[in-house]
Design brief:
- By secondary structure, the protein is mostly helical.
- It has a single domain, classed as Arp2/3 complex 21 kDa subunit ARPC3 (Orthogonal Bundle).
- It is 73% helix and 3% strand.
- The protein is built from seven helices and two strands, in the order αββαααααα.
- A two-stranded antiparallel ribbon has the order 1-2.
- α1 packs parallel to α3, α2 crosses α6 and α5 runs antiparallel to α6.
- The longest helix is centred in the last third of the chain and has 28 residues.
Amino acid sequence: MTHETTADPLPVIHTRHNTRWLTICGLFMAMNIALSSFGLPVPGGHLYLNDIIIVTAALVLDPAGAFLVGGVGAFLGDFFFYPLPMFVSLVTHGLQAMAISYIVHHCFRGNRATAVITAVLTGAVIMVVGYSLGRAYVYSTPAYAWIKLPYEILQALFGVICGPFLVWRMKLDEKIKKLINGKY
């Protein structure tokens, strides 16, 4: 009788997220960074369109993925191109995306339209209030926050209107779920 020692197999680590999920998050983050790198010129600054991607990603991903896309993606976009408000972007867009994702996936289960409308409006309020308070703190003047308020509201409205339109019209939620689950 010989005693052969066999190595125990490596423990299997079960995670909720797979490589496909991480790839989808990375793709959305790249789009967020790209759209936060340039903006439409408006009096007193620029109007950025990255809220469209943040809302779209938050509607189709779970809260963790939504935070990566919204918070970390906006943070990196600011870090590369205009670093002063990068932490404001991390917190504000991160909370915005997580709130949208949580409300859509966990509230109003019987009525999808109510969940989406509530989620995107809640996210818009978080974004407008967060950026207004953040700008007042970063730039040390509440007057600057008041000047930018109409453009923050307009930016939030772009996300509120375009995000759900992309998800429903292009059926992105179904396609991304299939991609993540490997059925596409």
